[in-house]
């Protein structure tokens, strides 16, 4: 659903840019409360994983494909504020390095793909957890539904943005019907990927999943006839090793997906591209400012072998995203520690 330059007029793009900048500023502050020494490395990995999986377009209908948006996945794994930042980092890397999503449309894409999907999915996720039985299975089920809802929600958001600042004269009803219809189907794929990923992490390290916090019962001890909270045990070495293993496994998986599996992704246009072409929304599409990038269109310039070119581009993208994301999240965490007073309270 990457919106290219030319779909939305300049004033509307500027407004969404302000909205995106404000949301990122709020998210940077909110992420300080979500990130700690355990989850900061995971956040950078989540951004890299979303980048990799977004390269895997899957067929959803005749001549149409879809790909992960990632807002629900990021929000559930590392928290809604950090989730907005994760998807924003991915969109920034894609726009600058790979000419995917217009640079003047960056505010539109962050608003639509990072903010809307994260806010909507996390609200649905929390609402479902409030009524479902406490347990890991409920986290997986809620993840599926939240991700499913988030994709058509993003389609609705794009339709509203297009209604305000679209550069072509296309009936809004046709745009809404086509966008929501195809993105409901794409949402099924999003939901499956999100639920499988969240379920896998919850199975091995539920303590690292932001959305699963609070589901475990605290250990109680009976002392002199009264129940008291048991003292927190120090994390065993095995747990620290498991966290490191999880990170390495996630990174290797991302590299394999982007560097090898992506070659077999569907070549059909995604939902927005298909709707734009069929209804004439793309008549005023502008050339991307990074069209001459060495990695434009997810290929390495001057590498003639398509499989090798795409694979190298994917690996480079994962590497750049995990480095950039990890640097940002470690900086946010460092700021958090600086904002905590010697008594342990936030300043």
**Beta fraction of the residues?**
under 5%
Number of strands: 4
Shape: globular
Return the string of H and E elements. Answer: HHEEHHHHHEEHHH
Q: If classified by CATH, what would the architecture be?
A: Orthogonal Bundle
Q: Radius of gyration, Cα only, in angstroms?
A: 21 Å
Task: Name the CATH class.
Answer: Mainly Alpha
- Total discrete domains: 1
Mean pLDDT: 90
Task: Report a brief summary of the structure.
One of its GO terms (cellular component) is plasma membrane. This protein is mainly alpha-helical and 347 residues long.
Describe the structure using short key phrases.
two-stranded antiparallel sheet; mainly alpha; Arp2/3 complex 21 kDa subunit ARPC3; 347 residues
Describe, in plain words, how this protein is organized in 3D.
The chain is mainly α and 347 residues long. It has a single domain, classed as Orthogonal Bundle (Arp2/3 complex 21 kDa subunit ARPC3). The chain contains ten helices and four strands, in the order ααββαααααββααα. Strands 1-2 form a two-stranded antiparallel sheet. Helix 4 runs antiparallel to helix 5 and helix 4 packs across helix 10. The radius of gyration is 21 Å and the shape is globular.
Reconstruct the topology from this structure.
Elements (H helix, E strand, L loop, with lengths): L9 H25 L4 H16 L3 E4 L2 E3 L4 H8 L1 H18 L8 H26 L4 H30 L6 H33 L15 E4 L2 E4 L7 H23 L11 H9 L26 H34 L8
Antiparallel strand pairs: 1-2, 3-4
Helix pairs in contact: 1-4, 1-5, 1-10, 2-3, 2-4, 2-8, 2-10, 3-4, 3-5, 3-6, 3-7, 4-5, 4-10, 5-6, 6-7, 7-9, 8-10
